[in-house]
Each structure stands twice: as structure tokens, then as C-alpha cells.
Amino acid sequence: MRFFxxxxxxxxxxxxxxxxxxxxxQTRAQVLENLVPEDITLGGRTGVVMSALALLLLAGGxxxxxxxxxxxxxxxxxxxxxxxxxxxxxxxxxxxSA
Length: 98
What we know:
Layout: H1 2-21, H2 26-35, H3 38-63, H4 67-88, H5 91-97
């Protein structure tokens, strides 16, 4: 069971990295530009990349059954939801993190 959840964390982290570095939704970006400044959306992209890297690191601890790693993973996933919404109004990635 632990390895299953660790695998899900790795898959989620890889999807977050690909989404933050390669995929750009033009229409969502235009809507988001009207709501918040561009600096905040760039900060959201940075936050998504940092949270994805943290999830990759925490997946090993979750696979070994470490309770602290699981608690930090929950915190990082909550932050990832916020970063996904700030990044590109990416509701699909935010729902996946939830």
C-alpha cells in the first residue's frame, strides 16, 4: 500500500513538472492576467516546480512508511493546489493533487 501511494506521488510530481515547464494555456493566461499581475503567475510556476521536487523527495519516505514524510506530503499537496490555481487556473492539476 505504501508503494502504491509513493508511486502516485511520483506520477503527480512528474505531471506537475511537465505542466509547469512545457504546457501553457493561452486563454487561461489571458483570463488570469486580468485578475492578478504576471509576477504572481510566474511565482506560481516556480511554486509548482518546487512542490513537485519536494514530492519526489518525499515519495521515498512515504514508501518506507515514515509518518513525518506523510505529514509533509499532505502540506506540500495543499500548497501544490494553490500553486496550480495561481499558475494557470489549472483546475485539473489542482483536483489531481487533491
